[in-house]
């Protein structure tokens, strides 16, 4: 989420600033990389239930994704809406 904001990626609103309290940083993670991420914590799961766009298997809140070298090349899709 921080990288998306820094790089002016459209569609990542991040209204709560990364506090896992708004779900406006919803993204779709490429299936090939999902297993490399820490599974969503309960608070993220709860927020994902209220995302504005379709929830998919690869749905995550970008603010909860910790970037590492292992994720090099990961494709992240931005939903068509966050509200
Ligand atoms: S920035 Fe608000 S939930 Fe991610």
Textual characterization of the structure:
The chain is about 20% helix and about 10% strand. It has about 80 residues and is α+β, with helices and mostly antiparallel strands. The chain has a single domain (about 1-80), classed as Ubiquitin-like (UB roll) (Roll). The chain has a 3-stranded antiparallel β-sheet. It is globular, with a radius of gyration of 12 Å. The two termini are about 15 Å apart. Bound molecules: FE2/S2 (inorganic) cluster. FE2/S2 (inorganic) cluster binds next to loops.
Compact overview of the structure:
The chain is an alpha+beta fold and 83 residues long.
What small-molecule ligands were found?
Answer: FE2/S2 (inorganic) cluster
Mean pLDDT reading: 96
In CATH terms, the superfamily is Beta-grasp domain
Q: Within the CATH hierarchy, at the fold level, what is the topology?
A: Ubiquitin-like (UB roll)
What would CATH call the architecture? Answer: Roll
Distance from first to last alpha carbon: 17 Å
* Main sheet attributes: strand count, strand direction, barrel closure: 3 strands, antiparallel
Low-confidence stretches: none
User: What is the total number of structural domains?
Assistant: 1
Strand order in the largest sheet: 2-1-3
Number of strands: 3
Beta-strand content: 5-15%
Structural class: alpha+beta
CATH hierarchy, class: Alpha Beta
């Amino acid at each position: 989420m921080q990288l998306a904001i820094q790089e002016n990626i459209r569609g990542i609103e991040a209204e709560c600033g990364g506090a896992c309290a708004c779900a406006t940083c919803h993204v779709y993670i490429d299936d090939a990389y999902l297993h490399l991420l820490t599974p969503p914590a309960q608070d993220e799961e709860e927020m994902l239930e209220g995302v504005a766009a379709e929830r998919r298997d690869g749905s995550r809140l970008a603010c909860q994704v910790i970037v590492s070298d292992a994720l090099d090349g990961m494709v992240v899709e931005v939903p068509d809406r966050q509200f």
